[in-house]
């Protein structure tokens, strides 16, 4: 790790809050992502030497040294600037479960990039930070809503990511069934076929457009049909016992529809209320079908994305 110089830019302590995200929303594979109202927090203070502490999700498991994803991303931004990173104390309070399809790695990367940029005097615009995050993460559908909030429609213009934010109309909540079992994105991607029938691709294009329209206009009943997917969920379902049962239970108990959250194994149901029947039905159906233990929560959509707030001391 490089040494800082005496004239390193000083900064006041601050905290970065970054939301969890649910990606794909059924048909929008790698192009739709939604920010959720539960956050990871990264607190940054000047220090005599580098230190890092992890609390909450990942405590006792994530490395607390230069191998940590937060630190590597933080230091990487200063490498872009041709500067050594400053000596800092980083404290991570993680509420986003790891390897559950809720954007934990995206939240970590975004928090570190926003923090490093602030420490450096904000030389990069948010659009540039988004590009850095996409390059590191490999796809935009989690990092974009984590940074921008709301629903984000993602694409590409050559090598550059394109992300357009939609502010969803109020009323909708997301019920998450979060299994205890983890599932890595790499394992979930290996289950996907290299080719799909044209009719399946067309169906997903149609449903993706309708899903984005539902969030943009507040016509949420469109989700009853538009959340249907043919590109990834049918192939990933065998990796997750209880997934199909929970999907059906969510719809039968009043949800507009449900989908795999990102690569899974978390299942996201979208509902206008009441929410408790949806939570209970999903939990029971998942466990009865052999999905194992789980927890279920209902969350609002996050509209703010990554935020910075000052700390005292």
Estimated structural class = alpha+beta
- Uncertain segments are 1-8
Overall 3D shape:
globular
- Taking all Cα atoms into account, the compactness measure Rg is 20 Å
Question: How many β strands by DSSP?
Answer: 11
Output the CATH topology of the largest domain: Ribosomal Protein S5, domain 2
State the end-to-end distance: 26 Å
Average pLDDT, all residues: 94
Oligomer: single chain
CATH architecture assignment of the largest domain = 2-Layer Sandwich
Q: Spell out the helices and strands N to C.
A: EEEHEHHHEEEHHHHHEEHEE
CATH class designation of the largest domain: Alpha Beta
Main sheet, how many strands, which sense, barrel?
7 strands, mixed
Q: What's the total helix number?
A: 10
Portion in helices: 25-40%
What percent strand? 25-35%
Number of domains: 2
Helix/strand layout:
Layout: E1 14-23, E2 32-46, E3 51-56, H1 69-81, E4 88-94, H2 104-119, H3 126-137, H4 143-148, E5 151-157, E6 160-166, E7 173-179, H5 185-190, H6 198-217, H7 223-226, H8 233-236, H9 243-252, E8 257-260, E9 267-271, H10 276-288, E10 294-300, E11 307-310
Helix pairs in contact: 1-2, 2-3, 9-10
């Amino acid at each position: 790790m490089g040494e800082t110089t005496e004239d390193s830019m000083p900064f006041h302590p601050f905290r970065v809050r970054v939301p969890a995200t649910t990606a794909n929303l059924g048909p929008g594979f790698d192009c739709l992502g939604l920010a959720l109202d539960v956050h990871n927090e990264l607190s940054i203070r000047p220090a005599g030497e580098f230190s890092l502490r992890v609390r909450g999700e990942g405590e006792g498991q994530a490395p607390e040294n230069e191998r940590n994803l937060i630190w590597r991303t933080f230091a990487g931004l200063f490498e872009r600037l041709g500067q050594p990173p400053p000596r800092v104390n980083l404290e991570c309070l993680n509420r986003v479960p790891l390897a559950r399809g809720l954007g934990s790695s995206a939240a970590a990367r975004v928090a570190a990039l926003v923090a490093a940029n602030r420490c450096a005097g904000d030389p990069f615009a948010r659009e540039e930070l988004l590009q850095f995050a996409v390059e590191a993460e490999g796809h935009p559908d989690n990092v974009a809503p984590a940074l921008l909030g709301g629903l984000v429609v993602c694409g590409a213009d050559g090598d550059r990511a394109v992300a357009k934010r939609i502010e969803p109309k109020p009323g909708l909540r997301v019920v998450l069934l979060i299994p205890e079992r983890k599932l890595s994105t790499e394992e979930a991607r290996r289950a996907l076929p290299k080719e799909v029938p044209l009719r399946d691709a067309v169906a997903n294009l149609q449903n993706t457009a309708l899903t984005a329209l539902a969030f943009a206009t507040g016509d949420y009943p469109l989700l009853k049909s538009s959340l249907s997917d043919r590109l990834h969920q049918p192939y990933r379902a065998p990796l997750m016992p209880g997934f199909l049962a929970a999907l059906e239970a969510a719809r039968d108990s009043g949800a507009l529809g449900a989908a795999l959250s990102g690569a899974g194994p978390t299942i996201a149901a979208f509902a206008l209320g009441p929410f408790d029947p949806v939570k209970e039905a999903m939990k029971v159906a998942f466990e009865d079908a052999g999905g194992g233990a789980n927890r279920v929560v209902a969350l609002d959509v996050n509209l703010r994305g990554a935020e910075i707030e000052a700390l005292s001391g």
